Amino acid sequence: MVIRVRGWALPHGEHVDLYADGDRWTTDPVPGVAPVAEGWLVPGLVDAHTHPGAEAPGEALDDELLRAHLRQHVRAGVAVIRSPGLAGEPPPWFGTDPDVPRAWHAGPWLVQHGQFFDGWGRRVEHAELPAVAAAQAARTGWAKVVADWGVDDAPVPADVLTAVVEAVRAVGGRLAVHTQHAAGGAAAVVAGVDSVEHGMCLDPDLLHDMAARGTALTPTLSAITSTLATVVDKPEGPRKRWYVDGATAHAPLTAAAAEAGVLVLAGTDSAPHGRVADEVLALAAAGVHPHTALAAASWAARAYLGLPGLEPGAPADAAVYAEDPRTDLRALSHPEAVILRGRLVHRS
Predict the structure, then answer these.
(1) Does residue 268 fall inside a structural domain?
(2) Is 42 in a helix, a strand, or coil?
(3) Residue 340 belongs to what domain range?
(4) Are 103 and 69 in contact, with CB atoms under 8 Å apart?
(5) C-alpha closest to that of 197 among 215, 175, 178
(6) N or C end: fewer C-beta atoms under 10 angstroms in the chain?
(7) Which of 66, 62, 5 minimizes the C-alpha distance to 39?
(8) Could you tell me if 251 and 277 lie in one domain?
(9) CA–CA distance, 14 with 5 (Å, rounded to integer)
(10) Where in the numbering of this chain does the Amidohydrolase-related domain appear (predicted)?
(11) % residues pLDDT > 70 (the chain)
(12) Range 306-316 average pLDDT
């Protein structure tokens, strides 16, 4: 079934008339096909850090819940997700069925012994980490290492992460690294990982190195800062001081990263799913330029994953809005229509 959309396509804002007969956009007109949606067209949104399929840390991956979470993403205009860590091996339909977003994933988190959530992740010795990460990346394109965890935990050393990066790149993959402490963040940047996830407590002096190396930052800003008010009321101690200091500095750090030329990606890392618009608003509130904040959840994130936007031959994804979201980012929360793989999958 041929569908048609027309309107002002972002990021350039030029008027376009697009058709899809299957999963590719074309400008070749098809007589007699009326538009299914008109307005401001945004390349299908991307949540670059989400862990669907489980309600709480440590729980097993639930296929029914996974599909429900993914549908929440779709209703929010999300056509693509990246899951840097899953509670289990996803089913074959993950990322491919017509009603769920395209998906990149890194399999289970790769973690040090004695760290991370019980029941989640794969505990790996340092000597084995490069080979294990490379095997995962060879299967799914990505691997994910948790470089640091508790306040008193030792991070993965920089030389180990460097060896992991080399092994993953040798099989054509990419490496995401969780870090929320200064030492782990420094090790990740020195190693030249592909993406730093969270990046709380990252030394701002490292941002220019990140930009030069092409290391992206997924700050999960809304998730981190929304927890701050709760943590402030907790008893004093090292863990509270670490979180309050890191979360308080995280918004300025994110804005400084964008200013330094680091590619910032929008990722929610939180439930309920389908909240990428909240992350875009948090980025803008932190001082990231609104155009850059929107790009972090759309065309820039898609390009990072190898997906073009609204152009002939590109995958047929789009979110359609009544108003220009560049003028008011709050419009992102209310898509008029969502196109996924050349199909109208949601209408307001």
Answers:
(1) yes
(2) strand
(3) 1-43+309-348
(4) no
(5) 178
(6) N
(7) 5
(8) yes
(9) 13
(10) 41-345
(11) 100
(12) 97
